[in-house]
Amino acid sequence: MDSELYRNITDFAHDMPSWVQSFVEVWTELGLLLFGVLFVCAWWRARRRDTTSFALALLAPVATAVAYVCSEVIKSLIDEERPCRAVAGAATSLIACPANGDWSFPSNHATIAGAAALGLALAWSRIWLLTVPMALAMAFSRVFVGVHYPHDVAVGLVLGTLVALLVVKAGTRPVRSLAESMRTSDISAVAWFAGPGARLHARQHARR
What we know:
This protein has 208 residues and is mostly helical. Helices cover 77% and strands 0% of the residues. The protein is elongated, with a radius of gyration of 20 Å. The model is unreliable at 201-208 (pLDDT under 50). InterPro entries: PAP2/HPO, PAP2/HPO_sf.
């Protein structure tokens, strides 16, 4: 069933106009960069907020990195061949099929997207309206371009989300304590990185 769904999606991809194909080919990699930009935006925003918000902003990229490592470990254990080589009668993948030994399950891109979407949503409540569609689009794009089965990206999204949730739950308290220390540090670069926090921001706002 999964192979048939893969064929249907890749056939659909080949029926799309060339500009749509090109857009998805770019998005499947550019999306990762955009998540990185959002990490920076979330950190900058959290500098003027309470220490819990700042801790969550720091944990978002950390959780994503941990999820990626977990995905790589699972890949090395399962060794699932890429559908662009394994599925008979499927349309040619829109991008080059990864080299033999670069296994398919789970999708690293989908895992990263799932973890980033959740991590950012926890640090920045309304950003989920952007990050969730981004993660789903990233996952779908991996099947659309022909390098993953649907189950690869579905499991990747779930894996990334669960790992991010666990990392954030385990790390919030110690990172919050670290943030409090950073904000009172005598080292100017450390204090700048951590930001003035919510109290100073509130005082500045009151003066205006």
